[in-house]
Amino acid sequence: MAEQEEYDNLAYVQRLNAAVHYSAGQICEELSQELDVTFSRQFIAVLSEATFKQCAVFATDLEHFAQHGKRSVINADDVKLLARRSAPLAKHIRDLSEQQNMENEAEREKRKSKKVKKSSKSAAVD
User: Does the predicted model carry a pTM greater than 0.85?
Assistant: First the structure.
């Protein structure tokens, strides 16, 4: 049973690695057309491997941030903490978080107004 889980995990990691490699290749292809440069296969392979390893480090860091906060779920604050070393990335994530918070607040207000309308209609009927 443990062998099967290890095999499944390895297959999953290999599929993720292949997806990262494919995406890196696609991005390099787009950039090569825009910038009129070429990227070697070796460069794309090294770039995708570095990206994959950095994502693994990010995942571990996020897990540790959540554990430090005595939580079992990673939240937006953990992601903001992760991005703190890159000012442009931190700003982008803060902006996305603020936008998401505004959308969530608008949705709450919308639901609240629907409840008020329903309760006022039922009170008027009674």
Answer: no
